[in-house]
Design goal:
Blueprint (H helix, E strand, L loop, with lengths): L23 H12 L4 H9 L3 H12 L3 H14 L7 E6 L6 H14 L4 E7 L12 H4 L9 E7 L11 H10 L4 E5 L6 H6 L4 E7 L4 H5 L2 H6 L2 E5 L6 H15 L12 E4 L8 H17 L2 H27 L2 H15 L5 H20 L1
Parallel strand pairs: 1-4, 1-5, 2-3, 2-4, 5-6, 6-7
Helix pairs in contact: 2-3, 2-4, 3-7, 14-15
């Protein structure tokens, strides 16, 4: 008897088998490399040869919060430092939904076609509840990620102020040593991320959109003063007229601000990351800025100021970690928190008690 065909809506139809997207040999090489306990010297030599796998491993080492990894990470950074500082560092920011990833892919592809080697350090926001991050920038930049002259590294913002990954500054040095001459840093686009990124880049690009109330929302003194160029994205189709109107408004706003110490007058332009319209004009603006600031000495002066700033930031971070990871402080912190919650102690008095305890421990250890 012929078997009756199952016509139930719950019946599963056999799907299409997806082809392999990664070479088995390449995957095996990566796995073997990851298992190997590679020395600092070998890691440095591979980075200087342009090995992206070694670069990723070094960045992971630098980003690690494990104290054991700190010494090795510092050795790698110091070994790469003489070969760094030969790139143009570009910060790109904008509110969520402005099209940062799409723009960076279009801009990055344009640069690689010019013969540039582009590294993208994308900062992904971490959840305040689960502390996890999606790290989906490679998925959003599907064309750029396949480019041999490009490297994309998503990193979690963690608990760092403004959503900039804790070790982005060191990652820049490693990418430069690996031969990347253009470093793009994408921010989360919220909080104080713009200020943090501005302190580690040469050129700051503010991405905006028109037609969503963004013209008025974007005219804020702090972020506008930091921007070297304002790019109104999604200037295509029916949105071209709105983008041009927004361009006029932002130009008017820029005239209200004092002259920058760099001697540069910030520009406003429009582009479409989808059609690539206006992408080349942005690169021309950027090269004009670099030429001007290098000729008047501001470029080098800014780099020197940034190095001093990040030295002090590293000291602050180290002292904070030393304080919170001290076993005695960890125990005292629990008790002090309970006193503050019960209103037996003010938050300020509690903080001073813990600091005084830490100072006394430091003096005892010194003796």
């Amino acid at each position: 008897m012929k078997q009756k065909k199952n016509t139930s809506a719950l019946n599963e139809i056999e799907g299409v088998i997806q082809p392999e997207i990664i070479s088995p040999k390449a995957a095996q090489n990566i796995q073997q490399f990851r298992r190997k306990n590679i020395s600092s010297e070998e890691l440095i030599s591979k980075i200087l040869l342009g090995d992206k796998v070694a670069l990723s491993r070094a960045i992971t080492l630098v980003e690690s919060t494990n104290p054991i990894h700190l010494e090795k990470a510092n050795e790698v950074i110091n070994g790469c430092l003489p070969f760094a500082n030969k790139s143009i560092r570009i910060g790109i920011t904008g509110v969520p939904g402005v099209g940062k990833s799409t723009f960076i892919e279009a801009f990055g592809k344009y640069l690689t076609n010019l013969g540039k080697k582009v590294a993208v350090l994308a900062i992904d926001p971490s959840s305040s509840l689960s502390h996890g991050s999606i790290l989906g920038d490679k998925t959003r930049m599907e064309e750029l990620v396949k480019d041999e002259n490009a490297y994309i590294r998503p990193s979690a913002s963690g608990d760092s102020l403004g959503g900039v990954a804790r070790k982005t500054r060191e990652a820049i040095i490693l990418c430069e040593a690996c031969g990347f001459d253009t470093i793009i840093i994408e921010t989360v686009g919220v909080g104080q991320s713009e200020t943090a990124v501005h302190s580690m880049v040469d050129f700051f690009l503010l991405l905006k959109i028109a037609g969503a109330g963004d013209e008025l929302q974007g005219i804020k003194r702090g972020i506008m003063e930091m921007a070297d160029v304002i790019v109104i994205n999604k200037a295509d189709g029916d949105n071209i007229k709105k983008a041009n109107l927004a361009k006029v408004e932002f130009n008017r706003a820029l005239h209200l601000f004092p002259t920058k110490s760099s001697g540069w007058n910030p520009k406003v332009t429009t582009c479409s990351a989808i059609t690539n319209e206006g992408i080349s004009a942005i690169w021309e603006i950027l090269t004009d800025y670099i030429d001007l600031t290098k000729s008047n000495g501001f470029f080098q002066e800014k780099r020197e100021e940034q190095n001093q700033y990040w030295m002090l930031e590293t000291i602050n971070e180290y002292l904070k970690n030393q304080f919170y990871h001290n076993p005695t402080i960890e125990k005292a912190l629990i008790d002090t928190k309970q006193k503050v919650i019960a209103h037996h102690l003010s938050p300020f008095a509690g903080a001073m008690e813990l600091l005084q305890l830490y100072n006394s421990l430091f003096i005892l250890n010194k003796e």
